[in-house]
């Protein structure tokens, strides 16, 4: 059987594998499928450089320049059981650990933000008649937002280079790709956003805000450097503090919403979480995704432009808390998942 050639994405697969040596590919396969909508333009990145020396009234030649680092962004529908995408997301946060819980009520996985991160992955995706491979890539940014009533994710990655002639990820490995769960997409209707003063009581239902849209980003700022003896770039390292941003839209402006302007001026800090409660796992136990922010501040004044219906937009950034606020765990932004994955640490 040959690699498919029909020019439609529905015929093709994408997979990944945790790598161990930068620039050396590892094979994807069973349980390593990436259930994506787009691959963010995984492609050869280099330029043709025409000669610019003297005595050429019209350019007479040139050379293909060196291979550059490959930036791409995996677009996907967020699921309570994200499969191998969960490994990539966990590696961005840097800490996962073995889950707590038991069958049949579900397992809780917590992705916490580490000082630094070190894991990287081989990513392979099919094109008509070819398999394109990035031997080593690190995730550096995760964006989550509402898209048509579902939660869509975009995971930005930076890789060392590209090949379409891999001896590691061939048709055999691509045909072996499987996915953990193709259902259980996270829905906007399943979510609640709660926020109160950072030093206040534990978050409760009375702290919920009506939210019609949101856009949350977690980002590590990394470099992009070529070095001697290596095609492409060396393993990226963080060059600045991480960035955590949240844009929250409140569809009906109230006086309470506008009171946030004074909170911005005063530099008031909040704590917040965004909890999505999905289908039943067993009895009263549900699939869950929780985004936790232990210290959240306004990065600019709340917006409430005059319109037919006046809405408010809150632009905020997350920081590290001095201590875990009441009712929360940890001091840095985190992501929690409750699902049926019992096989251990996403980073193992």
**Overall domain count:** 1
- According to DSSP, the number of beta strands is 18
- The portion of residues forming beta strands comes to 35-45%
Q: What's the order of the H and E elements?
A: EEEEHEEEEEEHEEEEHHEEEE
From the N-terminal CA to the C-terminal CA, the straight-line distance is: 33 Å
Q: What is the averaged pLDDT score?
A: 96
Helical residues, percent: under 10%
Give the low-pLDDT segments: none
Structural class: mainly beta
Q: Could you state the oligomeric state of the chains shown?
A: single chain
Largest sheet: 16 strands, antiparallel
Total helical elements = 4
Spatial extent as radius of gyration? 23 Å
- The rough form would be described as globular
Key terms:
mainly beta; two-stranded antiparallel sheet; 4 helices; 18 strands; globular
Explain the overall architecture:
- This protein has about 350 residues and is mainly beta.
- The chain has one domain (about 10-45, about 65-340).
- The protein has four helices and 18 strands.
- It has a 16-stranded antiparallel β-sheet that branches.
- The protein is globular, with a radius of gyration of 23 Å.
- The two termini are about 35 Å apart.
- The model has no long low-confidence stretch (mean pLDDT about 95).
